[in-house]
Amino acid sequence: MSLIQQKLTPKQKALAINLDSNIYGTFAEIGAGQETVRHFFRAGGASKTIAKAMSAYDKDFSDAIYGKEAHNRYVTQHRLRKMLRYEVSLIEERLSRDDNPGRRFFSYANTVTTINFDKTLKGHGWVGVRFQRDEDEGYSEVVLHVKFKENNTTLQQETLGNLGVNLIYGAFFYNDNPRRLISSLYDDIALDDLEIDMIDFMGPAFAYVDNRLMSLQLVKNGMTDAVIFTPGGKNMLPADLLYRKNIFAVRGSFRPVTKVNIDMFESGLKMFMEDADCTEKETEVLFEITISNLKGDGDIDERDFLDRVDVLANLGYTVIISNFSEYYRLINYFAGYTGLKIGIGMGVNNLLMVFDENYYKNLSGGILEAFGKFFRNDMTVYLYPYKDPETHEILTSNNLRVNENLKQLYKFFKHNNRIKDIETYQRQYAEIYSREILRMISENESGWEVQVPDGVADLIKDRGMFGYKNEVELKEFT
């Protein structure tokens, strides 16, 4: 009979680290007391682990140690990494390796702001650890951004302390299993108490870690609602990317990206920028994939996930992965970061789903509540036409059919230009269907190559994406 592994408490984790005489480092905590190092002091045996504990809370004193920050912003990733590296360099400078054989050095740091007096700002911060797996190995880092959900400063401080212990323990004991490390961050912490909306692994301990997959774990495990990464695969803090920006997004399965997707994006974005009277620099463009879309009928296929985002990255697009099955939740999320214009490019079929009351049974206000959140901040739908494969009818906002009891509501939004047809679409793309392309790829039929953007077909073939098999694989398969 297999035994279920029992989760350790923060005290037990701190003690386990304290009892390992080869783990030795410093703690630098700014903004919420010294909540993490407190666990190590109380656990016992801390003299073998703690080189130094400090809280350079005063900005002038902190600047004297770590240097000044641009725009006087101290709760930033840049500040955190500067703290981590400075503290490790001090250990290396002041302790001789010859006198400390076998020791694995580390530095833990956080820079946070907790809930304000008026409770209008819940608080957030950066937390990280820089560590060695072996005394002869270079340093690795795990850095994450947190948003507090509790309404009490003391509770937030306690949560931060538990998180810090979990992070340090995970770095030393779970570095060979980053997924387990991520899930262990919530040991003794409720999902309702804390959100982790960005995480980054780097260094020799994580040489083969794809940070996009780690971001996916955050959404999959319910630790955050959405994650964003650049074409280069870099995880981004949503607030840094979306704050006070005009936002234009296109949702899809992108399995694979087709010329229809790109035509919808380019035509819709052009209309959006004209309506918003904004420039590309003032606008953030996102290609969104939902978790429900990734899961399909089963669990998430990580290879399939990477195939999709690699193609989008190759085309130069920023990707957002979310758990927002309903569009109104996506708009509500964007509105939390910006008060500027929001635009959504979508096809007729998706708009019909938006006007389906069955999706809003969980809302006390039903579809009216959903639309109040959906059509906010001057949000506009840019509607791409759809050619019915059976009737060959071209469906637009003018002839799509919504339920009888919603017709007046639909007319209201259309009359007020909240739903606009994309009229400059490429009509030759009307019969491109992604499911048919996917079938052709998996069955090695030719002809699909001309239905995807330039360069995409070669990428799919070179990497064997979406079930594509080259001639050698076909011979082995048959």
TrEMBL record:
<keyword id="KW-0675">Receptor</keyword>
<protein>
    <submittedName>
        <fullName>TonB-dependent receptor</fullName>
    </submittedName>
</protein>
